[in-house]
Amino acid sequence: MKARKVTTKISMLGAVDWNRTLFDALIPLPQGTSYNAYLVNGSQKTALLDASDPSLQDQLMEQLDSVPRVDFVIAHHAEQDHSGALPLVMAKYPQARLICSQKASGMLQDLLDLPADRIQTVADGETLALGDLTLEFIYTPWVHWPETMCTYLREEKTLFSCDFFGSHLATSEVFAGDELAVYPSAKRYYAEIMMPFRVPIQKNLERLAALEIERICPSHGPVFEKPLWIVDAYREWVSAPPKNEVVIPYISMHHSTEMLVKRMVGTLAERGVRVKVFDLTITDIGELAMALVDAATIVVGTPIMLGGPHPLVGYAISLAALLKPKAKFAAFLVSYGWGAGAVKRLPGLIEGLKVEALPAVVARGLPRQAELDAVDALAEQIAAKHRELELK
Ligand code: FEO
Q1: What residues flank ligand 1, with Cβ below 6 Å?
Q2: Looking at residue 23, what is its pLDDT?
Q3: Quick one: which atom of ligand 1 is closest to the CA of 219?
């Protein structure tokens, strides 16, 4: 794809990766992604903001064939999906300075072997003049790494946000347009990449609130020409209380755990609690992450297998703990065959979630009426806790 116009002064370069299915060798990308770079043409100087993933760097270099001079290359973030093509870019423009935050300088040298004498660090709030245009650099640590910064193009009221406000969405469109179409990709991106950094994101949102922003140009997914909705969505995802929702990831090998799960779903639904159920043998882990953005309670269903929870359940719990969701309560629904010793170790598995552990319901083999009654009692306890917190 050729360079595409955002405004008369700004072009979108980089690559749309229609075929990428995993990020960080972990995170599913059902709609692909993009690695956006932006060219900003001032009256005296030209700046290239970010580069691309090395796997598609040829596309960026082809787009730069028609760009005779770049004075500044801005690296917002050292992660290779944005910085990987920088060695080629810096070789093409030997007069260019590589501009980055102080922390990013060492990381770019470590990760890409970029020479220190090509790098010029900028402080938080520092500006760079391109003639009639001014770039203002804003440190935004932990969206996504500690060295991350954004650039605000003052005269165009444009924020170049890199990972912040990104969407893993391969599209031929420059602009987000239909909010409903982009929202799921933006939420998935938040859930998979940004959720662990809720606290720094809150601070960074406060920082950006002082700016008049007419458009946001992220480095993944389309440009937001009506930026308010994505900023408001982030405010809700990071700051709003959890919702009156329960997420139930589970495995069932011989339907006993499934019986407990189905009973829990029915009883919670009768009490007005929304439930999202994920059979971990077929679940897109990104969908589970999206559900964790909002859920107040996590109920894990597992059989005991070889002295512990099913391995897929262990994986889902450890991933959820890494994502640091807002959930306040958690419980287990368990079926075991011949030894209940492993059940005692289950609460230790959810310590990383920082939740209040509710009593587990444990069935030896097939659940009987006593266990089904215990599920009803647990569901009522969950519903009561949600009511106490006035969750919507
Ligand atoms: Fe899109 Fe943190 O890289």
Answers
A1: 77, 79, 81-82, 144, 163, 220
A2: 86
A3: 1
